[in-house]
Amino acid sequence: MGDRKQARDEEFQAFVIGRWPRLMRTAFLLTGEQHAAEDLVQSTLEQVYVAWRKVGSADEPEAYVRRVMINAHARRHRRRLREFLAPKDDSGLAHEQPDTGDRIAQADDRNALLTALAELPARQREAVVLRYWEDLTETQTAEAMGCSVGAVKSNAAKGIAKLRAIPGLAETVTQGGRK
């Protein structure tokens, strides 16, 4: 019994170590703040650890964890959506440590892009983050968001359109996302 628990703990630890940068990037893009992203990832991993036997045996454990994270993020901000969409202090945006393979890190004005992304409505932001920065398919994004593929297409298109409408970001969005 103890050996199985230890093996499960080691499997969970290996999963966390291997996925931490990607989970943090997703959480940061969803929350817009480094500390909030850390809290979101940690609370997500707490929930996942309790159910690791089920999660670890899933076909795509990372997709399961991503869905838990999106649900946790939605629950946290459902009541405070207006306050969340208009952050008063963007200093947390400058503290995110870019991943060298992160396309968004190549943008000329990272802070402006992240600020604009944080101002999108929650569903549009989720669709843009998962579809373009996490490079998920429309089907994977729909599963993660718990909606239809059509809703993903609509939210992503509206989000990208809003980003393109911001002066100076049109070139960044076109280069960093899909045309």
Automatic annotation (TrEMBL):
Every copy of the RNA polymerase sigma factor 70 region 4 type domain together lies at 111-163
Report TM segments: none
Which stretches make up the RNA polymerase sigma-70 region domain? 21-80
Its keywords, alphabetically, are: DNA-binding, Sigma factor, Transcription, Transcription regulation
Q: Which Gene3D superfamilies match?
A: 1.10.1740.10, Winged helix-like DNA-binding domain superfamily/Winged helix DNA-binding domain (1.10.10.10)
- Taxonomically, the superkingdom here is Bacteria
For this protein, the record's NCBIfam families field holds: SigE-fam_strep, sigma70-ECF
Instruction: Spell out the PANTHER family in the cross-references.
Output: ECF RNA POLYMERASE SIGMA FACTOR SIGM, RNA POLYMERASE ECF-TYPE SIGMA FACTO
Q: Record's family?
A: Belongs to the sigma-70 factor family. ECF subfamily.
Q: What is this protein called?
A: RNA polymerase subunit sigma-24
